[in-house]
Amino acid sequence: MKGAGSDQAGEQAPAASADALLIRELQSELEETNRGVVALYAELEMQAAQLRQATELKSQFLAYMSHEFRTPLSSIQSLSRLLLDRVDGPLTSEQEKQVQFIRDTAAEFAEMVDDLLDLAKVEAGRVEISPDWFEMVDLFSALRGMFKPVLNKPDVALVFEEPQSQVRLYNDDRKLSQILRNFISNALKFTVAGEVRVSASQQGDEFVTFAVADTGIGIAKDLQHAIFQDFAQLDSPIQKRLRGTGLGLSLSKRLAHLLGGTVSLESKPGVGSTFSVTVPVRLDAPGPSSPSAGDPVGTEA
To answer: How far apart are CA 179 and CA 277, in angstroms?
Structure first.
């Protein structure tokens, strides 16, 4: 019996030694893996810091460049306006055409600069959202007044539908107006004939969708996913004749997010496009009470 016990102990000793060796190897591999993970995290953190710095530098550059461009652009626009008003004397028809070209080009350039500056502010987190109570009919009236002087296509009508709901919104109407201005401007650019129709519809008690529908060239399905990206532009004959940064829709998407909303697109080539922005009736932010007591928010008056 004693001999048998000794044999078992002798067999167990090598097995225990092998298990201990295996455990040490596993521990060594685990430590090596942990060191690799720590090194990877450190590298990722360093790259993230570099990316943040690059983003900040880009935003600073865009803001500085946009600011520096504004002064000469304002001078060009003012001088062209004075010339067209014949302050310094009459113009020939050819001179008037040339000055109008200068004025229109300066206006387009100023719009690009504004887009760049707004994008820099959004990326730097410096855009202030100032919600207040407003009526949809007032928003449409202001937009109609903005676009009336620049409608120069006799074959394209800009139509503002009367809002079916009389609900008041507590949101930033200036930022919302900027989104809709981008939508309307694009629709007018890419619509040769027909109409651009602006409408608003209430989605339940909590949201309102503003839509800008046109009868323009439309956008192919495979291009729609990129249309709200920075510097996105359509590959079309009309696009090649137009100047722009391709930032308007990207900026609109970011502004909509700041307003607690979303943007969307429905389009069919040769038929037209509908760009929409959906925002909450009341932005989640502290603010004053409704100016008209007794009317619950989110329902028709």
So the answer is: 8
Give the predicted TM-score (pTM) of the model. Answer: 0.66
The CATH T-level fold of domain 1-127 is Helix Hairpins (1.10.287)
Tell me the Cα Rg of the chain.
31
Query: Quick check: helix, strand or coil at residue 269?
Result: coil
Burial readout 106-136 (b: 16 or more C-beta within 10 A, e: otherwise): beebbbbbbbbbbbbbbbeeebeeebebbeb
pLDDT in tens, 52-92: 777 677 667 766 776 677 778 888 888 888 888 888 888 89
Can you give the residue ranges of every domain in the chain? 1-127, 133-280
Distance CA 127, CA 258 (A): 9
Same CATH topology for 1-127 and 133-280: the answer is no
CA distance 298 to 167: 6
**287 pLDDT more than 60:** no
CATH-assigned architecture of domain 133-280: 2-Layer Sandwich (3.30)
